[in-house]
């Protein structure tokens, strides 16, 4: 995600100042890159270094929520905006007034997933998620949204970020023992790749199962490549809807060229929505910087520019404070859509619903805040045909009979009233059996069943109807 976005960030800077509309601008953004990986401590120390020694006016891009959490505090301490286009809200907004997410409101995605679940009448769902900061808000939001549509979440499957293969295996086995077969997955790309591979080995990417991925996993292909898709056949995923424009098409082409130059040997086809958010973030910052109308006196000389990273000596920045104000007010038409910040995050709109089929990601429909799920953005329409796991076009019913179990049916054995029920050559016959089988056949799924005569070894009745009912109750026919 870092590499994909960095290419976007550079392109954004190029494009912004090459645009005739910005020819008269007196401010210029200058980028200082720090590659911290996913480590929270590295990100923190890079943040302190940037604030103290480079005196940056804004920090873009703590990638994970754990990184964002600490940097957000640092931003609060120094009055420097910390902007993330990929981290999910680590805390309630408002607590850290200098942390801005230039990504969509996560809660809206929870509603979209709930709508998808309701559309298919699944009554029970199991969220499967990485137990880290990125999910502390999302999972309760998801459970709340599901409750609104009368869907139960009786079990939440948490996975530790550093789970080993053995841990994942035992988690997957426990999922398999549940009746519920609808899962909503949200975890990092690395974990997800292993998880789906093991789930496939366990036969859980097969007929009857439903896997829904939240955004970020929907783009896993763009980040980790096609091996991910091989084990994710039939998965459906949500993704922020981005309108296909001429500008976007041109940007994607330039991005592909530049990305391949900078990351030889790694194939990537599109900048992903995170990349577009990164692009728009830089554009917004450049607009905000000009609007903030800096004057020289905003930039005080740095007192402690001696390479130290001690914590207490971070000065608050007046210039950055102004920048925050104007950034929150910026609106423009960006690559990812209308850029507009409310509640410290990008205002979210429509989602695209994707189905992974072969090496393709097929768009099967949309979710819009006003009108919910539809096959088309502009008119109400059915969803496109979804190929569920196991190359199946029938909508899975959302639960599975436990393995190797059959329904045992007790049948009375008695003389008389043969029209209702009797045994003939070991097979039950009669009106009651006809009705029962008509009902079973009307079900949209198979029920393995077995008729057991209520008789002793000689074929004589073992008792009255009351005895039979009691035996059924004791599971002892
Ligand atoms: C990302 O970029 C860094 C620095 O340019 C490079 O060392 C690294 O190999 C790249 N990683 C990927 C996965 O492209
Ligand atoms: C942010 O800073 C303000 C004032 O400097 C302080 O009152 C507030 O508690 C801080 N918030 C956090 C989360 O540190
Ligand atoms: C995000 O969306 C949810 C539901 O759509 C809404 O309740 C919430 O206020 C929004 N904003 C934040 C900051 O979560
Ligand atoms: C950096 O500057 C501070 C304050 O001026 C001083 O206390 C500290 O010893 C200096 N550190 C180094 C490594 O020179
Ligand atoms: C979202 O979908 C609605 C129709 O359902 C459409 O009117 C609106 O333009 C879409 N918004 C964006 C930003 O694409
Ligand atoms: C189901 O039955 C098959 C064959 O009879 C057996 O190999 C398998 O282990 C059983 N599965 C479970 C979960 O009992
Ligand atoms: C409904 C149900 O069977 N839930 C179980 C799913 O698996 C977990 C872990 O084994 C159990 O704790 C749940 O009770």
Automatic annotation (TrEMBL):
<keyword id="KW-0812">Transmembrane</keyword>
<dbReference type="InterPro" id="IPR001828">
    <property type="entry name" value="ANF_lig-bd_rcpt"/>
</dbReference>
<dbReference type="Pfam" id="PF01094">
    <property type="entry name" value="ANF_receptor"/>
</dbReference>
<dbReference type="InterPro" id="IPR028082">
    <property type="entry name" value="Peripla_BP_I"/>
</dbReference>
<dbReference type="GO" id="GO:0016020">
    <property type="term" value="C:membrane"/>
</dbReference>
<keyword id="KW-1133">Transmembrane helix</keyword>
<protein>
    <recommendedName>
        <fullName>Receptor ligand binding region domain-containing protein</fullName>
    </recommendedName>
</protein>
<dbReference type="InterPro" id="IPR044440">
    <property type="entry name" value="GABAb_receptor_plant_PBP1"/>
</dbReference>
<keyword id="KW-0472">Membrane</keyword>
<dbReference type="InterPro" id="IPR015683">
    <property type="entry name" value="Ionotropic_Glu_rcpt"/>
</dbReference>
<feature type="domain" description="Receptor ligand binding region">
    <location>
        <begin position="8"/>
        <end position="358"/>
    </location>
</feature>
């Amino acid at each position: 995600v870092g590499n994909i976005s960095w290419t976007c960030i550079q392109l954004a800077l190029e494009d912004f100042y090459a645009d005739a509309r910005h020819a008269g601008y007196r401010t210029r953004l200058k980028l200082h890159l720090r590659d911290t990986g996913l480590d929270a401590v590295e990100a923190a120390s890079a943040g302190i270094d940037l604030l103290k020694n480079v005196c940056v006016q804004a920090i873009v891009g703590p990638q994970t929520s754990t990184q964002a959490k600490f940097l957000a505090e640092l931003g609060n301490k120094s009055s420097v905006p910390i902007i993330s286009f990929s981290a999910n809200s680590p805390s309630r907004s408002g607590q850290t007034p200098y942390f801005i997410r230039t990504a969509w409101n996560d809660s809206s995605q929870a509603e979209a997933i709930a709508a998808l679940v309701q559309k298919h009448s699944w009554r029970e769902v199991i969220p499967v998620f990485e137990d880290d900061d990125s999910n502390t808000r999302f999972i309760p939001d998801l459970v709340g949204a599901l409750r609104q549509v009368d869907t139960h979440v009786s079990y939440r499957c948490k996975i530790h970020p550093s789970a080993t293969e053995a841990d994942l295996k035992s988690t997957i086995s426990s999922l398999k023992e549940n009746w519920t077969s609808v899962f909503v997955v949200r975890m990092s790309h690395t974990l997800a790749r292993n998880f789906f591979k093991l789930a496939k080995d366990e036969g859980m990417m097969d007929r009857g199962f439903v896997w829904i991925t939240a955004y970020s996993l929907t783009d896993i292909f763009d980040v980790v490549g096609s091996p991910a898709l091989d084990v994710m056949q039939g998965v459906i995923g949500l993704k922020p809807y981005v309108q296909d424009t001429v500008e976007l098409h041109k940007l994607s082409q330039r991005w592909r060229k530049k990305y391949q130059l900078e990351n030889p040997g790694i194939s990537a086809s599109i900048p992903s929505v995170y990349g577009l958010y990164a692009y728009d973030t830089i554009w917004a910052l450049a607009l905000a910087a000009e609007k903030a109308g800096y004057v020289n006196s905003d930039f005080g000389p740095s007192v402690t520019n001696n390479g130290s990273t001690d914590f207490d000596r971070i000065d608050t920045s007046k210039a950055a404070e102004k920048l925050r104000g104007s950034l929150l007010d910026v609106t423009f038409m960006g690559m990812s859509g209308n850029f507009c910040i409310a509640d410290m995050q990008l205002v979210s709109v429509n989602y695209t619903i994707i189905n992974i089929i072969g090496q393709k990601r097929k768009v099967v429909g949309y979710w819009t805040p006003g009108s919910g799920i539809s096959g088309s953005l502009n008119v109400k329409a059915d969803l496109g045909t979804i190929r569920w796991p196991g190359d199946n076009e029938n909508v899975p019913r959302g639960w599975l009979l436990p393995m190797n179990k059959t329904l045992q049916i007790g049948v009375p054995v008695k003389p008389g009233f043969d029209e209702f029920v009797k045994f003939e050559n070991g097979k039950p016959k009669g009106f009651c059996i006809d009705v029962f089988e008509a009902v079973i056949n009307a079900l949209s799924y198979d029920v393995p069943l077995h008729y057991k005569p209520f008789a002793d070894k000689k074929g004589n009745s073992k008792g009255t109807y009351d005895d039979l009912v009691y035996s059924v109750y004791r599971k002892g026919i």
